[in-house]
Amino acid sequence: MDYSIGRMGRVVVARGFEGEDLYGEIESLAAKEDIACAAVVIVGGLRRAKVVVGPKNPTGPIEPTYREFDDAREIAGVGTIFRDESGPKLHLHAGIGRGDEAIVGCPRGGASVFCVLEVVLFEILGVDAAREPDPELGLKLLTLHK
Which CATH number fits domain 11-144: 3.30.1330.80, 3.30.200.20, 3.40.50.2300, 3.40.50.720? Predict the structure, then answer.
């Protein structure tokens, strides 16, 4: 296991509003505030999303399996922000539910806020890390630079 030790920087508290793009808003905020590395916690609602729920085949290259919804659901999730060549990128996993139905995975594909979404970003300073392509898996993975 690679690791790096950093220290806590700023703590950013944000609110998302109905219809906003989950990834677009959080990544834009991180870019605006020049946050290269952070832990993220979210709680609230999503109107719709396409959620990665695992690989179709567990050997590379990875092709995701999706579940979609468009009926307003509750969400609680944790994630990270690290940069790639285009800027800060959110990687989020969450439990998403409505009634007795639950999905656990990585919300993607037009994930939009339902009603309200509370977001807390914990900036991490002193860690040199980025998302870099892994050709074998076909994903951009966290890479620690020492």
Answer: 3.30.1330.80
